[in-house]
Amino acid sequence: MSEIHPPPTPDKDAVHIAKKPRLEETESGEAIVQADEAVQEDALAASSSTAAKQAKAKSAKKSNKKKKQKVPLIEPYSNEDVIFQDVKALLGEEAVLKAQEAGSELKAPFEFKQELELVVSALSSNGESLSIAPAPYPPWVVLTPFALPGEKIRVKIYRNARLWSHADLVEVIEPNTELRDMDRIGCKYFGKCAGCQFQMLSYDTQLDLKRNVVSTIGSPLQYGYRTKITPHFESPLRDLKKHGRPADGSKPDWFKIGFNVIGTRNTMDIEECPIATPTLNKALGPIREGILEKMETYKRGVSLLLRESLEIPTESSATPSQDEAMDALVEETEKKLCVTDHRGTIRERVGDKLFEYTAGSFFQNNNSVLVPLTDYVRDCIFPTAPASIDTPRPTHLVDAYCGSGLFAITLSPHFSRVTGIELSTDSIKSANISAKLNNLSPEQHTFMSGDASDIFATVTSFPRAETAVIIDPPRKGSDEKFIDQLIEFGAAVVVYVSCNVHTQARDVGMILKKSQAKREKEGGKEYTLETVRGFDLFPQTAHVESVAVLRLVNVEHA
Ligand SMILES: C[S@@+](CC[C@H](N)C(=O)[O-])C[C@H]1O[C@@H](n2cnc3c(N)ncnc32)[C@H](O)[C@@H]1O
């Protein structure tokens, strides 16, 4: 990972597709092709150079074969693959197949900086608009941020991919007035910053769009919700040498501390971020000033961390009270502060549970939605629906990919035994500290570091018919090793939480298929997919957290 982190997007990992560099200009104004265009450049050069033409003439067959070999495979479930699926849905399988057979999928019909007018057909899964290039262009899709279905737009191409191009929005010629209202925009950087895509939409419309992917429950806070932001800046030394500091001591325009400009790796200066909490916004100004003062000392670029924390009380004041009214009062008056040290300790409250974790480690970034989310997961495990009434109530919980124990600890009152597993030793330390902080007994609440699949060897004494498993893996999803053991273990209910609906769908599909195969071979019960529900952890952006519930049932009930 580079030192410069992405903009304030859900950091269960990068979400924006446009991380790849765009076609850039040299100082002389000439377009140059950067890393990801290399393959395309190869293909184009091969088809236009004399040598390639001679080779073609010699053996069309060989050349065709060669051309096909040049088209790199798309990594399944990568951001590129997600776009490709959207493009395929829009152009139709047949058109895509034809282009692939003709070897024209990398032959973009557009030049760098070419402007064109388009009508938006749909939104992609990452919130960018998808428009089909009008005739006489070949079947080709253009992805443009900040545009809505039905809108007529003018765009400028900045990067060509396979069967699609990326473009900047130049102008909305005919807006979709039913959906777009520019007065709703709560951020002066909207339209340039890579962080948010949806601020021109009402919150209901944002949820509707997410519901197109998965039925979604809204966030109580729609602005001021992010408890962590990571602005960054490049080393100012080169520019300092060139331009010096402004005589009046002000911040030079060339020094930018902020987030990425959408579709680029260029930093834009950000003085405030309305989706971040007020505590973080208050801290941002003085942090920027501090950096400015010692600009000369930054030999390399820096990724800052601003993370909200409750003030951690001193030992003497930390004794928990037995009085609920008192606790509520404490909660209301809890002081919030901003931690910038990656190794610093963060304290966070989720309902009546307190968590402590290392500032640089993973924790969900929208605290306002964590009680609804964890309550929902609890209700899925203990349903009141008639179909599951004959199954015993789960008493044991396995929290796989548990991080600092969010699900294990919030749901602990409902289980006699809870265990969690997580790759990060730091997070496991935090889970143990948080368990202690909430007076959970170490005998009944255990957390271990390791690969998620290792958990099954440690829970052989858990009654399977009374065990619930929560899975919350990173964006790339789980793996076959884990899923095989999950099926073998056969917990009564599995709740799969994910920030990537695509890998979640793949894994759920695998669970269902393998579970059916096991039932057909050995008899017994089989997992069925009971519900899939979204939670909006990321208002103003296109992202959604998805919760899928699988239950082991007799097939006649399935
Ligand atoms: C999306 S986070 C979820 C954390 C936690 N459930 C929460 O909501 O706070 C995914 C976690 O999986 C962990 N992880 C990644 N690969 C893993 C693996 N193979 N086995 C166990 N944990 C893993 C990461 O360190 C990260 O903490």
Automatic annotation (TrEMBL):
Pfam families: tRNA_U5-meth_tr. GO terms for molecular function: tRNA (uracil(54)-C5)-methyltransferase activity, S-adenosyl methionine-dependent. It comes from the Eukaryota. Residues 10-25 have a biased composition (Basic and acidic residues). PANTHER family: RNA M5U METHYLTRANSFERASE, TRNA (URACIL(54)-C(5))-METHYLTRANSFERASE. Belongs to the class I-like SAM-binding methyltransferase superfamily. RNA M5U methyltransferase family. It comes from Antrodiella citrinella. The keyword Transferase applies. The active site is at C499. Keywords: Methyltransferase, S-adenosyl-L-methionine, Transferase. This is TRAM domain-containing protein. The lineage of its organism: Eukaryota, Fungi, Dikarya, Basidiomycota, Agaricomycotina.
